[in-house]
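Troubleshooting log. The previous run stalled partway through. Resubmitting the same two chains, unchanged.
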Amino acid sequence: MGSISGNPLGKAVIGQSGGPTAVINQSLVAVIKGLRGHSEISGILGMRHGVRGLVNDQLIPLEGLHDGHLSTIAATPSAALGSTRDKPDADYCNRIFAACERPRIHYFFYIGGNDSSDTCRIVNEMAHEANYELRCFHIPKTIDNDLPQSDHTPGYPSAAKFVAQAFMGDNLDNRAIPGVKINIVMGRNAGWLTAAAALARKFEGDGPHLIYLPEVPFSEEQFAQDVDEMVTRHGRCLIAASEGIRDASGTLLASKIQKSLETDAHGNVQLSGTGALGDYLAALVKANVPKVRVRADTFGYLQRSFCGVTSEIDEFEARSCGYAAAHLAMSGDLDGSLAIRRLSSKPYESMVERIELTDVAALTRTMPAEFLNGHRDVSREFVNYLRPLVGKLPVVGYLY
Amino acid sequence: MGSISGNPLGKAVIGQSGGPTAVINQSLVAVIKGLRGHSEISGILGMRHGVRGLVNDQLIPLEGLHDGHLSTIAATPSAALGSTRDKPDADYCNRIFAACERPRIHYFFYIGGNDSSDTCRIVNEMAHEANYELRCFHIPKTIDNDLPQSDHTPGYPSAAKFVAQAFMGDNLDNRAIPGVKINIVMGRNAGWLTAAAALARKFEGDGPHLIYLPEVPFSEEQFAQDVDEMVTRHGRCLIAASEGIRDASGTLLASKIQKSLETDAHGNVQLSGTGALGDYLAALVKANVPKVRVRADTFGYLQRSFCGVTSEIDEFEARSCGYAAAHLAMSGDLDGSLAIRRLSSKPYESMVERIELTDVAALTRTMPAEFLNGHRDVSREFVNYLRPLVGKLPVVGYLY
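Second attempt completed without errors. Output:
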């Protein structure tokens, strides 16, 4: 099982899990390239649809792909290996471990959010107990930016860029045909992605005029007052609201609406992939702010999958995380996850660091107080944090 | 009032109307530039929010802007002068004509859809009757592509590109996490924009697997059967449905849902800027196709306003229409609208032609039979028609 380098001789397996991002395949391709040339690696396998493919023996050989194909895959949004929503329990993790032990897989890479890092952690502990060397690396990705220990998470900057460009356009639209416009942005537990709407502001009076995040309790009465105030001030109001906004008791507004609709003949309204929350907020405005045109859009899956809007820094860092995972796994008896440490903002510089699996597994990072501004906006500090990650945005100009 | 050239000496006025597009300001800037250097033009004025600004004397001087500013304006999506939803009747047109006659406006340019061309037509007739020379040009724009006489309409190719890239991404997303995904696309009376989803297909099995257009009567029973068939065949199903789908009697599905929801406490559900139709179709699938994850997104205003996705040919042609309007108005006693004539598809070449206002005013062009393929898809002829207008799309690759 040993080798001259001290690394175990065996196969590597790579999987992708959870909601896709625009750069998740950059990490995948970086792991493949980073493992090349290591004679201890007897094969590189891809899990079809994450750990589900691993336990069902649906694996794809990844070592024979030529560079041109890999570059195309890297630039393709969404999980090229297929993804899964499975959240393995102890029994499932046992099957994962068994599926590694049998064909002598000694290197385990899993690209995903905090559920995925938890899977890595459990499988890793099982391997330790069985005295089987399984080097487990979690490679972070999530558009939600809610993993701890890291300045930000690969996938977030590209999604934030999409949201910023969407709000830039919708601000221009709302300026041309004034009214109240509500946009619902993804992010169940943290407001990072919704907050990215703030980058759309360039000139005085630009929207979004109101930003509502899960971190701040949402009051329907206050909301109606806020909109009325902005309509009086600007003659219009553009709103960014997180799908995860919740009332003072912590109850998701979306789940309250779902309850009230469950008696409806059409039933089963979803918390995501549905326009229910936007329509509910629009109805609130109509009932409370007189004589105003109200529309609501729910950005939905476009935020994580839209083809053609990515942040270059995000692409670069997603690759860096993949390279780091491959390199660290071949550097000794190491396991872990990766975090991005920001070294400076002007010019933007960052480095990738190994962190322990226990530091990231099943934890959620919400927006800190200094990134908030009252109950309905983000701070300048947040904008300064986000701007370098997103890179250049389109230039727009006004006639009035 | 005359001049050596035979052109009346006076001011020009330019306005924008209806839903914004990504290239509507290309036409605006082209008219401004096209009028420069003509000594008969004593001033160029912009209407704030279309004819509403004209009759309310809210006009902006446009002749002193420097080229850099104009280039930025041209590249900015949405109507830079502001837009309006006003659809003038005869009395309103009288006020428009009066607002032109008073300050000696002799050149009238209106960028908009078929309502706008109708406004041009009526104002033009009033000027003729009053023996006042008012050269009226309608400059076409609409993401709906439903104006007659033209191969396509400026604004459509860019919106089609957005829809194609959105479906490319969502196809990858749906492939990574299989299920049923419904996307509602704009286009009340014609399916052109929804049909653009077909450009997302690159490889065998790619979605959209079903495309529903206003041109083909929609049956809820047939829809449920179609989805079931695709789920069996592909293990997933990506659907493009127009907001304008209607039943065999011609009734909009969206209006039927609105009726059923009017008794709801939240009331007033809109036909656009709402997720109601998507949620309704999702509920239909849930009720009829067992054990499948169903989500619905409504693309909404992003289709017409998203900042950063434009077709180069669309930008070019929107400018060409603006230049042509300015040039024709200075070339004799001419009025009219513009149409794009395709000369060849490979390589793509087109020219701009003058057409009569009566040829475009208040008419709607739906998709011809040869662009349809059965009740749930578009034809190869349609894809060949659209592809050169949209230009290059992102390149994607697969591992399985």
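Takeaways: The domain at 10-154+310-360 of chain A is CATH 3.40.50.450 (Rossmann fold). The longest helix of chain A spans residues 156-176.
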